[in-house]
Write a structure and sequence with these properties.
Layout: E1 2-5, H1 6-14, E2 30-32, E3 47-50, E4 53-62, H2 80-87, E5 94-101, E6 114-117
């Protein structure tokens, strides 16, 4: 399962003139409002609770050339990988974090609260 903050999407979109900020390009399972750009990257190694389900945040989500493709047209239109590494000075092009349920899983719903677990 993957999660990204919408602040990260806004920061990435701002790096491109007139680019549409489509979350479909990244295919994350969960998008969170109210996070600063790249804040979710600091969650790696921690636990996050969404609704009543706890997740282990296991690693940053490394991205591939599929993110260069416009989700509506299929045409490659944005250099996502090089922008992540050059503009945002990432060692590897990452966007979002990968998570796994801590204890067997459960159900989450749109609008559930997202919080870090101490």
């Amino acid at each position: 399962m993957t999660l990204h903050g919408r602040g990260s999407l806004q920061a990435l979109t701002a790096a491109f003139a007139n680019a549409e900020d489509s979350e479909l390009r990244f295919r994350s399972n969960i998008a969170v409002e109210g996070l600063g750009a790249w804040e979710e990257q600091s969650w790696v190694g921690r636990k996050v609770r969404i609704g009543t389900v706890d997740f282990d945040v296991v690693k940053p989500k490394l991205r591939c050339l599929a993110t260069h493709a416009n989700p509506k047209t299929g045409e490659r239109d944005l250099p996502i990988l090089t922008t992540l590494t050059r503009v945002f000075e990432q060692e590897q092009p990452t966007f979002a974090v990968a998570m796994v349920p801590s204890h067997g899983g459960g159900r989450i719903h749109a609008g559930d609260e997202v919080s870090l677990v101490d």
